[in-house]
Each structure stands twice: as structure tokens, then as C-alpha cells.
Amino acid sequence: MAENGSDRAGASSFSDFNDPRAVVSRSKFLTGATIGLGGLIGVAVAVPVLGFVLGPSFAGEDWYWTSFGPVDNPAYKEGAYEPVIFERGKNGELDRRVAYIRRDGAEEFTIISNVCMHLGCPVQFKATGFACPCHGGQYDTEGLVTAGPPIRPLNRFEYKVENGQLLVGRPFATENVDGKVVMTDQFKLPGEPVGGLLGWLYPVPPV
Ligand code: FES
User: Fold this and answer.
1) Measured torsion, CA atoms of residues 93, 157, 141, 189, in degrees rounded to the nearest 10
2) Tens digits of per-residue pLDDT, 170-189?
3) Which residue among 114, 121, 138, 192 has the greatest number of ligand 1 atoms within 8 angstroms of its CB, and so is best to mutate?
């Protein structure tokens, strides 16, 4: 009997699906397959997203520095803003931007974006500050909001001076800190808050 029992057990392990061991084996297989498939789907979704987010970090930064000419250009004056229209982009896709430049020293500048921080209309510089024609947004000469619906100060461009040339880079969001404009290290679109919980809810868009 013992011999018969042993034979039966050995012969049924892969062919008798009523055998409890076969059930365990199938459930393990299905669990493993589900985990494996889930992992593959996760990788398929994550790789393009990571590429989109991290890609610019590896693309180099040369493409976004635009020469605005000699740093001692007399058009860049203290106490007044000079509007400059320029194109910037890569892979043949250029986009037109406007920056207002004010000289603050021999190699120091304030460079303000003309994009209103309400809904993105182009602001214009008047004697007392920047004004938006769309919904009456008003900013002072530093770009701080003085009236109307914009939720934060005007963005500012980073810049550097190299070989006597003024190079303008990316625009960054700014904040009003005790009545002073403070440039942040992130780019935000019009209407998007910068700090606090709401600031985290808006993803940082490509510059
Ligand atoms: S877009 Fe400038 S105030 Fe609305």
C-alpha cells in the first residue's frame, strides 16, 4: 500500500489539477505573473515620464543663453527700462519673448519678463511701472503687484556677463517678501502660486 501511495503521489504532481500541490503551484505562478506584468507596465509608464522630467537636466544649458550684446550698451540705462525682443528655443522651435532691462550697475541688471502674472497678457512699461491692458493689472517699477488680479510679481530672467557680453537665460518666478522682489529657483506660469501648499500642487513646467 505504501508503495502504491508513493507511486500515485509521484505520478499526479503535474497532471492532476485536483492535487493541492498543483493548486498552490498555479496560484504562485499567477501571483508571479501579475507582479511581473505590473512591473513591466510601471517601467513602460515611468521611463517616458522620467525622460521628460530629467531630459532638460542632461540637455546642456547653452541653448537658453541668449546674447543681448555688449554689457556696456548705452541703451541699458539706470532708472529706465529698455524693452528687448528676442527669440529663444532649440530643435528649430523658436519662441519670441520680451524682456525689460534696467541697468543697476556696471555689470548688474534687473531683467523683467513682460508676461502678466494674471493670465499672461503682455505688460507695458509706463513711467510709474508696468501696466497690463487686459484686466487692469498694475505693477510698480520692480514688478510688484500694486492693483488688479495678478497673483504675484512679474517673472525675472537670470543673466550673466561673459567676455563683455550680457547673456540672458531662463525666466524665474518671483515672490513679494516684505515688499521686496525675491527671485525663486523655479519657473511658474501666470496664475500659478509659488509658495505654500498650493505651490506644490502646480508642477514646474518646462522653461
Ligand atoms: S492678464 Fe494681465 S490683468 Fe489679466
Assistant:
1) 60
2) 999 999 999 999 999 988 99
3) 121
